[in-house]
């Protein structure tokens, strides 16, 4: 499949936590050495890609639980099930921001979102460092998906 990050969303994000995630994402975007394209950081969605030719798949995280008819939504509305999504980044520069957003989202709402990755802990260290510095959080690499 190529270098990919995966996440499972079990519910919609709490309004205050989503607002915090968007704010952290904006701070991270400003502090990151990476330039993003097609950026949306709104009340409903966080999405972005790299700038061509350093783009690949668009990263998209929705505040609300996506409807059951969306791709990857095969196993719910059973409350124990989840929405599964992924983003192939091919380790292009915007991969740093994908990892940062997943780290912050999981830190703020660990019961709502979990993540997994094809990457090693060393691949995630720059994102962990950036999140902890810019967002004043104490995240660590903890894939739990």
Could you describe the 3D structure shown?
Strand 2 and strand 3 form a beta hairpin. By secondary structure, this protein is of the alpha+beta class. Helix 1 runs antiparallel to helix 2 (95-108), helix 1 packs across helix 3 and helix 2 (95-108) crosses helix 3. The chain contains three helices and six strands, in the order βαββββαβα. It has one domain (4-135). The protein starts with a strand and ends in a 10-residue tail after the last helix. It is globular, with a radius of gyration of 14 Å. The model has no long low-confidence stretch (mean pLDDT 91). The strands form two sheets. Strands 5-1-6 form a three-stranded antiparallel beta sheet, with helices on one face. Strands 2-3-4 form a three-stranded antiparallel beta sheet, covered by helices on one side.
């Amino acid at each position: 499949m190529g270098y990919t990050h995966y996440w499972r969303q079990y519910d919609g994000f709490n309004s205050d936590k989503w607002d915090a995630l968007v704010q952290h994402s904006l701070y991270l975007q400003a502090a990151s050495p990476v330039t993003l394209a097609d950026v949306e950081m709104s009340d409903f969605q966080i999405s972005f890609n790299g700038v061509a030719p350093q783009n690949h798949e668009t990263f998209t995280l929705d505040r609300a639980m996506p409807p059951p008819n969306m791709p990857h939504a095969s196993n719910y509305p059973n409350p124990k099930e989840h929405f599964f999504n992924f983003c192939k980044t091919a380790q292009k520069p915007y991969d740093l921001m994908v990892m940062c957003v997943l780290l912050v989202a999981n830190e703020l709402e660990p019961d709502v979102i979990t993540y997994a990755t094809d990457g090693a802990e060393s691949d995630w260290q720059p994102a962990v460092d950036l999140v902890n510095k810019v967002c004043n959080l104490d995240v660590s690499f903890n894939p739990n998906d």
